[in-house]
Structures are given as C-alpha cells and as structure tokens.
C-alpha cells in the first residue's frame, strides 16, 4: 500500500481574479493554483496572503458573480472534473462558505474546447456562458434566489454552435439589456481562415438564442491568421448612444466595441456601427495575455516576456486610431491583473510571478518590480541531494524532506532556470559577534524600552555584556547597571517598569534603567546556607526562584524584591517557566513547574503557590523527566487557548492545549525531536503571538499556521542557545550561540517556507545530472532566439557548480544547423582500458531531423560522451550516431542502456584514451510505440511506453557463444499514456500517466500460469490532478517499526513536489480506515450536502480516471492521501474523538502518529 504527501505546493498560476470578495469597498486578489484557492490583499507595495483553501479538483476557471441583493462579490469556481460552485466570504468565521454547487452531467465524450475563455459573465452580471467542449455552449442566468433557498443559478442550458475551433470569446458592452457575445474562431482546415461572429445571447422574449447562422449580428472574415484574443472595450465615461448604421462607409467607431489582437495587426470593431479601425504592428508578435489598465489603455504580454501598452486614441467617445508601444521586460505572463495606482500583478506558469508598478505618464514608460514570488513550475527534471540520516531508536523513519536539497530544472525558454529547493525554517546569518566557548545562556535587554541594545552572555563562572549602538557598533563593557559579572547568570530581563533584573546562582539584582530609583538585591536566607539558586523565571510582576531545587520562592518585582510566598517541595524541581501576562488567561501570574521524581508538572498560582492543575507526564516510561518548559500563545485566541510544551530528557516534546479559564490540559501530543532534551526558547511574532524555538539534534520551530500547531525543521544544526534580539540595526533578529563557540546574529523565518535559490539560465533546462566527484551539475538546455522574424533553437550542455550555484567552464554547443536537441543527460562512472579506477563521465542523448522537406524528414539522434577537463570545461570524447532519437539513458552493470524511438538498445562502452572511445551493440528490444521513461534495477529494465503503459525487460547475457538478449518478462495490459516510471522495491514499480494517475504495479513471479507471470498487477491507484514529469527513487533503509518508508520524490508540471512512501504492514488498515472516516467529515470548497457528501467529492477527485471512459469513482485504491490524513490535526477535539471511535488507538495516539507523518515533509 502507498502513501502520498505534498512537500512543495503547486506554484504555477494560470487563473487570477480581482474582486470585492472580502469587503464592498476593498478589492482583493484571488489566485488559483491547481487545487488551491488563495486570497491575497495588497499591503504596502506588496501582496500578502490572507488564506488558502483546498478544493477537490483542478481549478480550470474563476469568475465573480454579484447576486441580487449581495453587497460583496461571490466567487465562481470551475474544475477540470466538471464540478462548479460559488463561495462567499463569511466575515464572522473568516472562512469561505459554499453557496451553490452543481455538476455538469452533460455528455463528456466530446473534444475539449481550446478557447482561452472558458467562462464569461456579461457586463450586467445576469448571464454566464461556459464553453467546455467544441461546438457547445452552456448558458445559465443569475436570478434572485427563491424564498428558502440560496441558489441563484438557473439550470444550465446546452446550446450547439457551428463555430467549432473557437480561439476566444467575450461579451460586448451593448446598448440594451440583451447580452451580445463575440466569438473568434478558425473556420479553415489549414488553420488559416480566422473569422469573427457576434450573437445575441437571448432573444426579444428573454429566451436563450438558438445560435444559428441566421442569428449572426455581425460577421468578419479574413482576419489575421495569428489572431488569438478578443479584448472587450468599455464605453467609459461617454454615454453617447450608438446606432446600427446601414452605410458602413460613413460609419464611425465609438467606445464599447472590441479589439481583435493578432500577430501582425490589430482590429478595432464597433459592432453596433460596424465601423472598423485597423493597425499594423511594426514587427510580428505572439501575444499570451492582456489586462485592462483603464478605459483606453490595455496591457499586452507576449511570448518573450515583454510588456506592451495598447492605447485606443479617442476624441470624445469616437475612436480615432490604435497604438502599441513597448513598456519593458517582465516575467512571462499567464494572467495579469491591474490592482490600481499602476500596480500590476503578473502571474506566470513558466517563470516567477511578479508584482510591478508601471509609470505610463513618462515619455518612456518604466517598470518597477515590487515583489517576486518564486515559481518552480514546470519542473522538467530534478535531482536529489543532501539526504539526512535516520535514527533506528525511534519507531518511524527519521527521514525528513527538510533534510533534502532538491535541484530542479524549471521554467521555459527565457524564464528557464536551475532551482535549489529546500523546505523548512530558514536561518540566515547576518554577522559573527564573537568567538566564545562554554556559553550557558543568552539574554537581550533594552535601555530605551523599544529596541534591544544590550546582550548578556552567561558563561559557567562569569557574565559578559555587549552593547550595540545605532550604527552597527558593538562594544564589550566591564560594568552594567550594577550587574554581577563574576557569576553565572540564570536570568536577565528588562521589566515593563523600566528596571533591569539579573538572577545569578547566589542572588537577584533589580536595577533602575536610567540610574533613577533604588537598586535592590535579594539573597537566600543565610541560615539555610549553603543555598544555590538552581533556576529562575519571571514576568513583569513576579520572579519565581528555586533554591537547592526544593524550595520555591516568589518575589515581587514592584516592591524591591519583597517575598510574596515560599514553600518547600517534597520533590526536586527540574524546570520552571513563568509566562507573560497573556490576555486569554483568566488567572494572572501563574507558573509551570516540572519535577524530577514524579515526572509531573504543576500549574501554580504565584500569589500563594497553590496548585491550580497537576499533570502526570509518564505513561509507560517510569524514568521520564521534564527538563524544559514553554507556555505561550501559539495560535490566535479566537482559534485556541495557550499551548504548553514540555521537553523531556529523551528528546520527546509533549504538547498540550490549555483551557484559558480552568488552566486544565488536554489534547496531548508527543513529538520526537532527537535523543536528548530540547531547550525551548519563546520568540515573539506579530499580533501578540509567539513561536517556540526547540534546540536539539534536529532544531525545530514550533509555530501556528492555518489553525494548527506546526513543527518544522530549522537550518541551525549547531545552535545550542538563542535569544530574541530586536535591535534598531537588526530588527526581528535572534542571537545564536553555536556548539563550536561562535556567537552570531541571524534572521529567522517566522514559519516554514520553501527556500528557493535560483540560477537564471535564460534557456529551458530540460535535463539534469549530478556528479558528486566533479561537485557539479551537468545540464542540457534549449535556448530560443528570434533572428529577424525566424525563431531558432540552440541546445547546449553546460556545467553548474554545486556550492556557489554558478556556471563553470564553457558550454558545449550542439549542431543548430539541423536542430539537434538534448533529450536526456546521465552521469556515470565508466571503466577504461588505460586506468584501474573508473572515470566520471556525462552521457547525453540527442535528437535531430534530417532532410529539408518536412514531409520527408527523418528523426535521428546521437549519444555523446563528455569528460570534464581541469578548467571544468566539458569536452566531447566520442559521438555515436543513432537511427532514431535517444529518449532515455541508464546504466546496467557498466553497460549503457538507451531507449530510442521504438527500440531499447544495450551497448558496451570501451574507452581507450581520454579522447577516444566506441560503442558495441549487445542486444535490442522492440517497444510498442515510443519509450518515454526508463528505470533499471539489477538486470530488469522498466520501460514506460508513450501509449502502452509499462513493460519489464530482462537482460540475459549470451552463453555458449550466443548473443546477449533483452527479453520481455512482464507487461501492464492496460493502455496508459506513461510520463514517468521508477522501481520502488523488490518487484514493485511506480508509474504516472498523462491524466494525473499514479499506479503501483507488482510483478507476480509466483503466478501459476505463464500469463499470470507475464502480467503486472495494479496494487495501488490514485489520481493527483497533475501531470508528473519526473520520479526519482530514494534509497532509504526501511525500519520494521516505521509508519511509512519514503521511496520516491515526484515533480509535476504545476511546480508541486510529492513524497511517495510505502506503508508499514501494521499501519495499513489503520491509515485506510482513518482516511475513509476523515473523507466523510472534512469539507473543502464546493462541498454542498444537497448535491453530494464530502466522501463522494473525495472519491470522485482521487479515483483513478481516464477521460472518455466510464469511471466508477470508488476513490483511491489502496492509496492513502497524506494531505487528507493531516486534516485530522485541524479538527476540534470532539470531531477527533468521533473519528477515533472504533478505530482502535486513542485520540492522543492518532494525533502523535499524524504529527510524526507531518514531520516527514
């Protein structure tokens, strides 16, 4: 059984919408990323994400609807699964509520439409048109909901049109209430007859039009053959009435028409007067997106990442001419939205998304980039580096995706790049303060009460003080506010009343900040000498001290350290924590104390040290001892109360939910962060919330996100002490003490992020191979250049250094005269006849066309072997001509396996010198159509065929003088359009196809008949809604007690990266049952109980699916959706108990299991 979890969300943006979703007066931006809807608001020159919600389906359209009586816009969402819904923002719950949901139950065996405008709403907001299939329009009206219902859509009516190959559609601004639809379509067999027609959507009686040729309002022929977009033009401020003119020669064009955007020309059409205005471009161009800037100015984006301004020149309401001028260079746009005041959002599929500011008032317009959002889509190839180890002492594999560096080939053409992707909480070093050994603690103070400008460094036998000025000046001082610098400091803190507090092992000192006020010193009663202060913690009112580990004393910080209460404990105090005054806590001035002997914690009232709540931490281990405590507000008080974290001595961190009124504990979770105790440090963040930094073998940041507590790895493996340090020069920073004695100031992320390091290549990075010996990546690229009006493609092989992430050496250019392209790249250690040890080589497979006549061209290819010289330049050792394109390469026991068109060939490689080598063909295998992917394990070659799924081919060396053979030993009998294949374990293989399906195939060696042994059986199947481009195997040693074992990474065209794992035998039934229960409860956008249940939605989305086949949506087959499983942590405790009823394990056990699964990615 299989388990799939996302480790990087989709980053490609194809749909965006500006609308009044949240507020009637304030607009927001809604983005669609595959199966997620994100809401962003415009802050100070940058967009900030407000929320992100999942939907069961791949979003294919977004539109805004304003129903009758509504004060805000409703969001209309359509998916590729032909499911549609409208959602509205609920200001009370701060969530999106589903208003109406429906399916398209029409015939779905038709050819999909190629129109760029899948859904349109007329300017009055009363009619909605969807074009899903060629020659079919679905039309429905927006009406006032009937009493007792919220549905405002009529039943969709399906209308056939004669225009089949529609390129674009738009609604026009008409003079009456009858919406008019313009359709740009291709009427010719050779795609050279581009026409435009307009229809009235409804007739005089308000009925849907028949859309027959006699219903044409207007018809234009012989348009630009490259015309691909229609831009509707508003009437603007001029309300001049337009009339249908019989004499088109004298007609004048007015605002309210449309612009036909072509590759060589533009056409403005006033559909009422039939007047036309033509404009010829200075040079041909391929347009990909447009956006309205104002009534007379429109932004145009082209294929080459350039931004243009289309201006409609007018005199009053009359259109005089058109003009197009270049603004500048941006990312390649897939969608654009003008946010106002010249700020434009440019969403991209092939490059980074940008927020820019345009200044069009200048004679030469300028573009200012305000914000860049990383986009790693589409991922064409990737490799995995820096895999962390694992610890067999824990009951699950200790692998974490945060320990893996994934290097991807992303983007396309001019936006192509190499990306280093690592997920986790980033720690960026800003500077080294000093080298100090034996640091025992760090404390930040503030002399002005605003910024931290004093750092207290506590050592074993002394304390050192560093002061900071406003100009990055740092100085160590010998005296500070009467502090004792000859002793180890347990606590240093600035109080709200302006006093400074220091607690050493022998006394407490309270000093005024500005020299005004009384300095107070408190020492333990000498009659109990010798007494050592073992621990201390304080808020702005009270100081709690432990004397010799058995006596607790509370001191008043407002009354010269006067004694408030003291009490001797029978148990040894192991740790303590006094939280700040949290607004959500009903009882002020509390403390949490942990004890050695009993392994318990107590919540105390500092007024009299009375016990408010006691919790025994031990369950099965009688030696568990609490060693560190943090009590703070992780989530907003409207979502949850405070959280309590207890670090145990064996590396486990216990987490509890705290009731703000009674201070009782619930929702216990245990997370393994290492093998030794973690030190917990509370770090403030915005809105009165806090994070917790856990320092251990695997440093982690505990923070709140999307209503739940998240544990994420931090890139600070050597940190032993940290403290918050919000200085004027380094705002929002922390000071870190490392295990090797470095004291440095760093910037830390407030939550987990995907850290992307980019090397712009300017060409499509098609293939990647990593060489550990050369410490470099070998990449195959394709560059697009325009010379005159002709596009040319140049393919190159080049090297990129792994640490500095920059190109090294000179690129090797392939033969551009015959259009040679790199198809695959591989690195390998090959044996030679002149050296004892193997040599490192890059092997490249190519394709090219022979012949000048396209009808007679033949596809050929080469295999090129590259070496790397001392200057890190790749050089060609040998080139082997092929009869077909070389699609894939792999190695088998020193032999090269090449997948050509229709053939798999095995070669022996013989290298005689550093510049000479040759191939010898050993064996061949004839494939069904075209091998698209290949993986080799032992002597078995897994071949993913373009149309005929997976086949296994066994290599058999020749005996007794017979030649070697490649023999097919098993095949998947179902026809799948394969995209990637990889060996998982044993006789198990993972395959992805063009429709977003994942299939785990098992070879049946023990079958009774030959037919059974020759068939690959599907043991797990699921649809992820994205096309997988590449699967890379992970070599993680399985643990018999692990919940799941990571087996492979997968990358998709939408920029997603998934972790594929196999489920441990003892957890299979548990996870499958948990998935079924959660899928019946978890509701996503579009779930409307009047239409279907959440379970039916989930099953329909995740079920194995092939278009044009009648699927039975029974859900994923023996496949567990990790994203759904993790929703268990989002549920409130009552729902968690309902899910776990009859499941077997307790709620706490299930929470712990899901948290451990979450740490894997």
From TrEMBL:
GO terms for cellular component: nucleus. The keyword Nucleus applies. Keywords: Nucleus. The keyword Nucleotide-binding does not apply. It is found in: Nucleus. Residues 794-1129 form the RSE1/DDB1/CPSF1 C-terminal domain. It comes from the Eukaryota. Its main location: nucleus. Residues 12-373 form the RSE1/DDB1/CPSF1 first beta-propeller domain. GO terms for molecular function: nucleic acid binding. InterPro entries: Beta-prop_RSE1/DDB1/CPSF1_1st (IPR018846), Beta-prop_RSE1/DDB1/CPSF1_2nd (IPR058543), RSE1/DDB1/CFT1 (IPR050358), RSE1/DDB1/CPSF1_C (IPR004871), WD40/YVTN_repeat-like_dom_sf (IPR015943), WD40_repeat_dom_sf (IPR036322). Residues 435-748 form the RSE1/DDB1/CPSF1 second beta-propeller domain. Pfam families: Beta-prop_RSE1_1st, Beta-prop_RSE1_2nd, CPSF_A. PANTHER family: DNA REPAIR/RNA PROCESSING CPSF FAMILY. This is Mono-functional DNA-alkylating methyl methanesulfonate N-term-domain-containing protein.
